[in-house]
Amino acid sequence: MKREFVIAGNWKMYKTGAEARELVLALAGSFAAVRGLTVVVFPPFTALESVRGLDPKVRIGAQNVFYEEQGAFTGEVAPRMLAGLAEYVLVGHSERRQVFHESDADVARKLRAALAAGLKPVLCLGETLPERESNATLSKVDGQLDAALAGVSGPEWGSVLVAYEPIWAIGTGRTATPQQAQEVHRHLRLRLEAMAPSRRVPILYGGSVKPENSLDLLSQEDIDGLLVGGASLKAESFSAIINSGSQLLRS
Ligand code: 13P
Fold it and tell me: What pLDDT, in 10s, does the model give residues 98-131?
């Protein structure tokens, strides 16, 4: 029924280099390459070298990047330092926004710097529970989308991905229903189409994705993939999620 899926695992602050290597190898052995299926994992910076080039079926991304090219920025990593180590990079994850106080302006600069360095940014956005309960979901995600993507143009659109991650669904076990997710994805789709006509920017869903709900989520028309946290840390659960994507692509 469907075209293409990106199934991504955000490993957050879990996994040493050795553990990451073991997990990538286990994952690679647990699913078959299928046309239209892209699998990406986002290990911590310190594990990127350990997973480099392990298996072409498992693409690699970084969880963060700074926007300056170099300089006195203790603890930060420049886009060009990721060359050869990461193909994708997360920008604006809600944990970066909330715990590390990244603003929409910071996220926009990171996204631009990532594109300039040839990385594929995955722009994360989503609302808090009070925002959802006060019907502010769509205005929140619109603001985040517009702020981050205002400067993107032409062929750059081919490298951009968006991940809708309602904050109330992250790490809580409380997943958005497929209908709730689809509603926001549809809204984002129309807005992205207005920004980038003739492109289908992939829109992933994230927030308590598990093997039990991945098929229903991916069955929604405007859900082009998943960004999985906790359930991506074990080969068994992550490969079950990946295989729900393969199943839909084959059907
Ligand atoms: P969980 O799947 O653990 O809810 O995390 C989602 C997430 O933040 C992915 O980026």
Answer: 999 999 999 999 999 999 999 999 999 999 999 9
User: 195-234: per-residue pLDDT in tens?
Assistant: 998 899 999 999 999 999 999 999 999 999 999 999 999 9
| Residue nearest ligand 1's atom 2 by CA | 229
**Domain at 181, CATH number:** 3.20.20.70
221 is catalytic: no
Number of domains in the chain: 1
Ligand 1 centroid from CA 72, angstroms: 32
**What is the chain written as a DSSP string?**
----EEEEEE-TT---HHHHHHHHHHHHTTS---TTEEEEEE--GGGHHHHTTS-TTEEEEES---SSSSSS-TT---GGGGTTT-SEEEES-HHHHHHS---HHHHHHHHHHHHHTT-EEEEEE---HHHHHTT-HHHHHHHHHHHHHTT--GGGGGG-EEEE--GGGTTSS-PPPHHHHHHHHHHHHHHHHHHSTT----EEEESS--TTTHHHHHTSTT--EEEESGGGSSHHHHHHHHHHHHHHHH-
Domain span at residue 122? 5-250
